[in-house]
Amino acid sequence: MSIIRPTRREILTMAAAAPALALPAITRAQALGAPATGNPAHFSFTLGEAKLTVVSDGRLEVPANGLGINADPEEVKAFLESYFLSTETNYSHTNHLVIEIGDAKVLVDVGSGDRFLPTAGELMTNLEGAGIDPASITHVVITHAHPDHVWGIRDDFDEAILPDAQYFIGAAEHEFWLQDGLAARMPVEMQQFAVGAVNSLQTEGADWQLLNNDGEVVPGVRVIDTPGHTPGHVSVVVESNGQQLIALGDSMNHAYMNFARPGWYNNFDMNGDLTVTTRARLLDMAATDRMAVLGYHFPFPGVGHVMKDGDAYRFVPALWQW
After folding, report:
1. How big is the CA angle at 306 (ends 87 and 253), to the nearest 5 degrees?
2. Is the pLDDT of residue 158 over 60?
3. DSSP-assigned beta bridge partners for residue 59
4. What is the pLDDT of residue 16?
5. In a domain? residue 253
6. What's the structural domain count of the chain?
7. In the structure, what pLDDT confidence band is assigned to residue 190 with cuts at 50, 70 and 90?
8. 233 φ/ψ sector (left φ>0, alpha ψ -120 to 50, else beta)
9. Is 281 inside a domain boundary?
10. What are the tens digits of pLDDT across the range 44-98?
11. Backbone phi, then psi, for 47, in 5-degree steps?
């Protein structure tokens, strides 16, 4: 199985020149224009007896040519245009889930901190804005060890930013990134990802509990194996009073393309074919069982449902309630 890797140019463009990716408003079909003051960065709802809050870590702006890399580029461009999206910049949100269930307060992923892109790293501030004291988090679940999901685990002293929480990750993901000499064996353009993953997973004060498929974090919260985007990627299932939601992580990272064109994969999907296989299983499961889903990179707050649409699917945003 081949590993799909972004080019060196794409990584350098994303990591070093992200602010320059912002295009004039007249050419950005997907943007209504940023407000003079900030928008709310959290959204709360209930699932059975569980209280769920989506909290933003900010946004990412990366080249759109990393989308649908196994498809005809002109077809991908036409798809984006048909959905009123930029063909130059993939502007995506970063939606973290806080699950309050029983006596537990579970955070899914810890964001990128100040180690990745300047447009992200707002999770801890936004948690406080949502009325959630970061110190009150009892459990942290990491879907995978890419920068925007785990690099925020360390504070300025390289210690766990949530020292009193219990930390969980998929066993296969932990094993993959902590292989001896992994960074040296990877292409130059991916070595910073590997080094960052190792530094994050070896953070002082973060003692990992390794989970396999259907492993329980707390009663009502478990992980399921969803590999492809990374070798050991997991998604998080919340269940209360017969209602279920899947926090997808990056197993699906585009709210339109992954549904309407589920066979397309992206440059950061490390195994494209496996990503597609996993996605097909998730889409069928969510649509058949009428499970809610949360997409980490979907338009904020990223919560909705999966509807079968011929041979493909459609993402149906959930109706907000006040």
Report:
1. 40
2. yes
3. 93
4. 45
5. yes
6. 1
7. confident
8. beta
9. yes
10. 999 999 999 999 999 999 999 999 999 999 999 999 999 999 999 999 999 999 9
11. -135, 105
Checking if the pLDDT of 28 tops 80, the result is: no
**Domain coverage including residue 215:** 8-22+50-317
Q: Identify any residues that bridge with 236 across adjacent strands, giving them in sequence order.
A: 223, 247
**What is the largest distance, in Å, between two alpha-carbon atoms of the chain?**
52
DSSP per-residue letters across 293-315: EE-TTSSTT-EEEEEEETTEEEE
- Answer whether residue 27 is part of any domain: no
CA distance 11 to 138: 34
CA angle 150, 233, 225 (to 5 degrees): 140
157 is written with which tokens? 């002293």
Let me know if residue 39 belongs to a domain: no
CATH classification at residue 305: 3.60.15.10
Please, are residues 248 and 226 in contact by the beta-carbon 8 Å criterion?
Answer: yes
Contact assessment for residue 226 and residue 258, using Cβ atoms and an 8 Å cutoff: no
